[in-house]
């Protein structure tokens, strides 16, 4: 793990919301997939404190781009902004967008960016996972990879649908089911951390 990643993890875990950070093994898996497909354009849906954006930037060459999207800029600004700006090997690659992710992704599709992106990481508001998934498949190039974090959602996705099932659980489960039935992709749900759904777009 790079020193900047250790620092971001330590600072993030001191926050009341620190448990939202993606686990190190999830970020390492994403980096390995980035190396495998030689990704140079990544979308990071859910910036939080910037740990995932930094991981993707570290895994890609100098002429790469990581677009990281979040509606709340405060966590990134307070935890990671200065650390990242002090790293010339990372800072130029990361482009931030503050605002609703679904709107940004729709705007990207409308501007002709379909099938232009190599790698997409989804780790944001769970209730919008189904929409993020569909937008991501359209933005992803053939041979590209989507990684969805929290795909097991504390194990709650295995519970039968019923009146006590919350909206986030239902949305994560719906996303998993969509990916498993989607003829455009290959998919594999991995039982590490809180569950990781890895999706490869077919050629």
From TrEMBL:
Signal peptide: none
GO BP annotations listed: methylation
Keywords annotated in UniProt: Methyltransferase, S-adenosyl-L-methionine, Transferase
InterPro entries on file: Cation-dep_OMT, SAM-dependent_MTases_sf, SAM_O-MeTrfase
GO MF annotations in UniProt: O-methyltransferase activity; S-adenosylmethionine-dependent methyltransferase activity
Originating organism: Cercopithifilaria johnstoni
Pfam family, one: Methyltransf_3
Sequence similarity: Belongs to the class I-like SAM-binding methyltransferase superfamily. Cation-dependent O-methyltransferase family.
Name of the protein in question: O-methyltransferase
Organism superkingdom: Eukaryota
């Amino acid at each position: 793990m790079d020193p900047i990643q250790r620092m971001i993890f330590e600072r993030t875990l001191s926050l009341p919301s620190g448990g939202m950070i993606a686990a190190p093994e999830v970020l390492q898996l994403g980096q390995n997939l980035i190396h495998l497909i030689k990704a140079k354009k990544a979308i990071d849906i859910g910036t939080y404190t910037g740990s995932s954006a930094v991981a993707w930037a570290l895994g890609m060459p100098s002429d790469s781009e990581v677009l990281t999207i979040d509606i709340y800029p405060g966590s990134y600004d307070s935890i990671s902004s200065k650390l990242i700006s002090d790293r010339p090997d990372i800072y130029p690659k990361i482009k931030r967008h503050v605002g609703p992710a679904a709107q940004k992704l729709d705007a990207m599709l409308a501007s002709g960016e379909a099938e232009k992106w190599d790698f997409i990481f989804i780790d944001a508001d769970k209730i919008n996972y189904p929409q993020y998934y569909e937008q991501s498949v359209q933005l992803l190039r053939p041979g590209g990879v989507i990684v969805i974090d929290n795909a097991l959602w504390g194990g709650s996705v295995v519970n039968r649908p019923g009146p006590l099932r919350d909206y986030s659980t239902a949305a994560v489960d719906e996303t998993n089911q969509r990916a498993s039935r989607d003829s455009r992709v290959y998919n594999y749900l991995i039982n590490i951390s809180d569950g990781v759904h890895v999706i490869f777009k077919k050629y």
